C-alpha cells in the first residue's frame, strides 16, 4: 500500500495558536485515495527544518504533501526550501508568473519582488492554479516520488487539492478503495473489549479496528468502535469491513448480553 | 531557549478521523511555560514507529511530550514503546497498580491482564495520577531530558498535565515568560506588508511577527498581524511585544494612510 507523509509548515501551529485542521482534511482525502498516511510532521518557518523534513519524507514515503509557507511575506519560504530538498534551482515559472501578476493587475496592483516570489518553483516542477487566492501550488516528481506543495490558508489548500491535485493523484494513485463503519457500545469497559478486538484484528490484515473511549471507563463505559481499511475495489473493502463488524457484534453480545449497541451515542 | 517536541500517537489522526486538538492545546501550554516547540510528529499505533519517534525526539529536544496509546486495548502500547526507547524494562509500578485497580474495584470490576497493563511504566519512571480516567500518565527522565507521556482522551490528558505535570515543569522549566498581541489590518495586500515585517523581525530576535491572511489578497485584503515571543520575565516580554507592535503600526500608517487597523476583524 503506497505511503504518504504530510508536512505542515508554520510557527502558528507550534505555539498552539492554530489547530492543524489542514492535516486532518488531507489525511482523510489521501486515505480515501488509497494512500496510507504514515506520518504528519509540523515544522517551523525555518529553512533548514523544512528542507530536512522534506528530505526525510521523500526518503520514506511515496507521496509527500505540504501545507503553508507559499505566500508573499518573509517567512514564506516553502518553494525555495523544496527546491533545496530536491537538489535543484528555484526558477521563475512563466505560467505561474502570469497567474500571479494577472490577479494583482485586475485590481490595479503592480509587480513587486514579493509578489513575483510566489511564482518561483523548483526546476522541473509544475505550478498548480489557485482559484481561491494568489499563491500557486506546486507538483514535483523525483525518483518515482511525488511532492505536492499547497498553501496554508484552508480554502486555498482545499481548492488546489480538489481542482488540480486530486485528479492527478486519482489517475496515478494506488487504485485502492477505503471503507469504514462504526457503532457505539455502552455498558462494557474498554479493558473487557480488548480480547475481542485482538481477535477481530486477526480476521484480515487489511482491516483495522479501534475503540475510542467516550464515557468513563469505570463509571459509565461508552466506546465508539471504528472499523476501517482499504482493498482492491470498493465492494471488497465494504465486504471486509462488514465481515469484521459482524464478528464484533456477535462476540460482544455473546460475552456481554447486557451490552447496548447503537449507531450513535445515546444518553442513559 | 529549551526546546520541546510533541509526539501524537494514533491511527485515527492519520486517517483524518480526529483533528489533533491535543497537540495545539499542549503547544500553547508549553509555549507559555517558556519552551520552544520545534516539532509535532504524528505516528501510527505501531511499536517500531513510536520507538523511533521517541528516540529521535529525545535526541533533539529537552522535553518530549506524547499523547495517546495508554489505554487497555491491544493497540495501546505507548508505555512499552517508551521503555524500549529509553533502553529499560517496563515494570509493574505498585502505585500505578493500586490507582488502576482501585478505580475498577469501586465499581465491582476485577483485575485482568488488560487492566494491569496500564500500570506498567519504564523502570525508573514515575506514574502520574489520572483524576479524569484510569490510565496513569508517566514522567521519565534520562540524560537531562524529560519524557512526559499522557493519554489521548483530551479531558484525561488535560487533567494529568494541569494537575501533575505542569507544577513539575514550572519548577524545573526554563523560567521564561511568553507574551503576544495581535491586530487586524484591512486594505493592504499581504505582499505589500512584507518589507515592513522584514524590518520588524530585526528589532529583537526574541520577538516574532507573522501575518495571517484572512481576506482575499487582491480583492479585499485583510490580515491578522500576530506579534509574540519570550523573555526572561513577563514585563520584558510584554514590553518587547509592545515595542514591535508600535513599530508596525507606525510604519503601516506611514506607508499606507488608507489602512484600517482594528483589534478584531470588521466587515466592510
UniProtKB/TrEMBL annotation, chains A, B:
SMART domains: MoCF_biosynth. Residues 5-172 form the MoaB/Mog domain. InterPro entries: CinA, MoaB/Mog-like_dom_sf, MoaB/Mog_dom. CDD domains: cinA. NCBIfam families: molyb_syn, PRK01215.1. This is Competence damage-inducible protein A.
Amino acid at each position: 500500500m503506497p505511503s504518504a507523509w504530510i508536512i505542515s509548515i508554520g510557527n502558528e501551529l507550534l505555539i498552539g495558536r492554530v489547530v492543524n485542521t489542514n492535516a486532518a482534511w488531507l489525511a482523510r482525502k489521501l486515505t480515501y485515495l488509497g494512500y496510507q498516511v504514515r506520518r504528519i510532521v509540523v515544522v517551523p518557518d525555518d529553512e533548514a527544518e523544512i528542507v530536512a523534513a522534506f528530505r526525510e519524507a521523500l526518503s520514506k514515503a511515496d507521496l509527500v504533501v505540504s501545507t503553508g509557507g507559499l505566500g508573499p511575506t518573509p517567512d514564506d519560504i516553502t518553494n525555495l526550501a523544496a527546491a533545496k530538498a530536491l537538489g535543484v534551482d528555484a526558477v521563475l515559472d512563466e505560467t505561474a508568473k502570469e497567474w500571479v501578476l494577472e490577479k494583482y493587475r485586475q485590481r490595479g496592483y503592480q509587480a513587486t519582488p514579493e509578489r513575483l516570489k510566489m511564482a518561483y518553483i523548483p526546476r522541473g516542477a509544475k505550478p498548480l492554479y489557485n482559484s481561491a487566492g494568489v499563491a500557486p501550488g506546486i507538483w514535483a516528481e523525483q525518483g518515482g516520488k511525488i511532492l505536492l506543495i499547497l498553501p496554508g490558508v484552508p480554502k486555498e489548500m482545499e481548492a488546489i487539492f480538489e481542482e488540480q491535485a486530486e485528479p492527478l493523484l486519482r489517475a496515478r494513485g494506488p487504485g485502492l478503495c477505503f471503507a469504514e463503519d462504526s457503532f457505539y457500545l455502552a455498558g462494557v469497559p474498554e479493558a473487557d473489549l480488548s480480547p475481542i478486538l485482538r481477535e477481530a484484528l486477526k480476521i484480515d490484515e487489511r482491516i483495522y479496528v479501534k475503540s475510542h473511549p467516550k464515557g468513563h471507563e469505570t463509571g459509565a463505559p461508552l466506546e465508539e468502535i471504528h472499523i476501517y481499511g482499504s482493498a482492491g475495489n470498493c465492494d471488497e473493502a465494504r465486504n471486509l469491513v462488514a465481515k469484521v463488524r459482524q464478528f464484533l457484534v456477535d462476540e460482544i453480545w455473546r460475552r456481554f448480553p447486557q451490552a447496548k449497541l447503537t449507531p450513535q451515542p445515546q444518553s442513559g
